[in-house]
Specification:
Elements lengths: L1 H54 L3 H19 L8 H20 L3 H22 L3 H4 L5 H29 L3 H12 L7 H16 L1 H16 L1 H10 L4 H14 L8 H20 L21 E3 L7 E3 L10 H17 L7 H19 L4 H22 L6 H7 L9 E3 L2 E3 L13
Antiparallel strand pairs: 1-2, 3-4
Helix pairs in contact: 1-2, 1-3, 2-3, 3-4, 3-6, 4-6, 7-8, 7-12, 8-12, 8-15, 9-12, 9-15, 10-11, 13-14, 13-15
């Protein structure tokens, strides 16, 4: 009887577990079905609003309907609930198509370009999230859903190529685009050479143009290095008194005719030129998709990718396929070059701790910022930073009259001044008398 009772208890427990599993799976299935139904409903609403936006006669009404459509598509394409689903991919594709159609309705070139760039970024996000092999998609989706996602991705690639061609045509009228294109065309448009060589050549030319400003910047840094021993002495003498240290430091700067902010002015003048160079490379972005560089475009391309922290939906490849894609190895090389450059710039001993922290924090911060940038831009910035660092080293370590300042810091023996000893003040030694020469 006891055995039968135990057996019945085990069977009852097993049946209850099975019932719980069935209920849970039923709830999950219903939730998924409801979510799918809701996504489809949102897509239908977005499509109706998009149609009204495209058929609107007035610009104000068109823009209002367009914003509503973008919001509705975003609820599906940008919601974590639908991430990885066919509905999520479809929402992004329809949004990109709407942005492309809106661009065609614009009368101003600037607005047309803005809509096309928005469509291009949407398609890039779609491809980055959903472009996976069929067997990978089937791990989370049914075979039918996985095939639907693959169909959407293939269509997205076609739309992306069309949008890129339109943007490239618009950019080709810009003188910055034409400057790069002249260099690429002059070297035969060779994918493995012409494109990266054009970037380096432009970077070198800009660096030569900025050399006078760079020299002024680093010479100001060198003047700061010269008085560093004096400032260090002040810090030791007035340790704990920040006010006195600040006053004495400024007095040293005045005595040696040094402006502590002189190195900042050339840097500020350079910034607009560097930004212009960035936009020059950005205007030629779609042509850089044809170019490769050493490991970029090699057999190692697209082996591993990482999500960009501050740009959801964006990826950075450890080794990119072309110069238009982000490349993590270039980011790492840039961070190393920036660390070396920042370490060389440390000239003020009063801010040693801050400068030490900046030499680590700045490269890391820029690594996160530049992770999603095209590798063409990273290549330009890396080459520029290497040239800058070499120039900085040569100027800051050139021989100069630093010995005089070092001697001024070191205490000089004085025979006329009495010094204290253990037995009391030591008397100054009498000067030896000169003997008169014998006649």
């Amino acid at each position: 009887m006891l055995q039968k009772s135990c057996k019945k208890t085990r069977i009852a427990k097993l049946l209850s577990i099975i019932a719980i599993v069935l209920v849970a799976s039923t709830i999950l299935s219903l939730s998924a079905a409801l979510a799918e139904t809701k996504a489809d409903e949102l897509l239908r609403q977005a499509d109706k609003v998009a149609e009204r936006a495209l058929s609107a006669k007035r610009t104000v009404e068109r823009n209002e309907q367009f914003k509503k459509a973008v919001e509705l598509y975003g609820k599906v394409g940008g919601d974590k609930m639908y991430l990885g689903t066919p509905q999520g991919a479809e929402a992004l594709l329809r949004l990109a198509v709407l942005q492309k159609k809106m661009a065609a309705l614009q009368t101003e070139r600037k607005q047309e370009t803005a809509h096309l760039y928005a469509a291009y970024e949407t398609l890039k996000r779609l491809v980055n999230i959903y472009d996976k092999p069929l067997h990978k998609l089937e791990e989370k989706l049914t075979r039918t859903e996985a095939r639907e996602v693959r169909r959407i991705v293939e269509e997205a690639y076609l739309v992306k190529e069309d949008v890129a061609a339109k943007l490239d045509k618009i950019n080709s009228a810009d003188w910055k685009y034409q400057l790069v294109d002249v260099l690429v065309r002059a070297t035969g448009r060779i994918p493995s050479f012409s494109y990266w060589f054009a970037i380096i050549l432009i970077t070198v030319m800009v660096k030569i143009l900025l050399t006078p400003l760079t020299k002024a910047q680093f010479k100001a840094m060198k003047e700061m290095q010269k008085v560093a021993p004096l400032i260090k002495k002040v810090q030791e003498e007035y340790k704990g008194d920040q006010k006195a240290i600040g006053e004495k430091t400024m007095e040293i700067y005045r005595q040696h005719k040094i402006n502590p902010f002189a190195s900042c002015l050339p840097l500020l003048v350079q910034m607009p030129i560097l930004m212009l160079l960035y936009y020059t490379i950005r205007s030629y972005e779609f042509q850089f998709a044809k170019g490769t560089f050493l490991w970029i475009g090699s057999g190692l391309s697209h082996l591993v990718s990482f999500p960009v922290m501050f740009n959801p939906g964006s990826l950075v490849w450890f080794t990119a396929k072309n110069l238009a894609e982000p490349d993590l190895l270039l980011v790492i090389l840039y961070v190393i070059s920036m660390y070396v450059s920042t370490k060389l710039s440390a000239v003020d001993p009063t801010q040693a701790e801050q400068q030490k922290m900046m030499s680590i924090m700045m490269p890391v911060m820029f690594a996160f910022i530049f992770a999603g940038f095209p590798s063409a831009f990273l290549l330009y910035w890396l080459v520029f930073n290497i040239l800058q660092t070499v120039q900085q080293y040569l100027i800051l370590h050139a021989p100069s009259g630093e010995a005089a300042i070092v001697e001024a810091v070191q205490p000089q023996p004085d025979s006329d001044v009495s010094t204290n000893t253990e037995d009391g003040p030591e008397k100054p030694k009498p000067k030896p008398k000169r003997r008169k020469p014998k006649k």
